[in-house]
Design a protein that fits this description.
Elements (H helix, E strand, L loop, with lengths): L2 H64 L1
């Protein structure tokens, strides 16, 4: 191989390595965002469940008062 071909190959390898590192970092960040979103969704579902329970209790109490 000629020196210029080796240099070109080295540049390509360096570029690919930097792309792999960037993609790994981006992938890690996206996985963290996904985990955070799943956790937040779980919290919201729990709040929704609690609110629905309270509303049902209030409706039940109102029905008792009307009767």
């Amino acid at each position: 191989m000629e020196t210029t071909q080796l240099v070109d190959l080295e540049l390509q390898v360096d570029y690919l390595l930097s792309m792999v590192q960037r993609l790994q970092s981006e992938n890690k960040a996206l996985r963290q965002r996904l985990a955070d979103a799943v956790h937040h969704r779980s919290e919201l579902q729990e709040q929704h469940f609690d609110a629905a329970k309270k509303i049902k209790l209030i409706i039940s109490q109102l029905k008792e008062e009307v009767e």
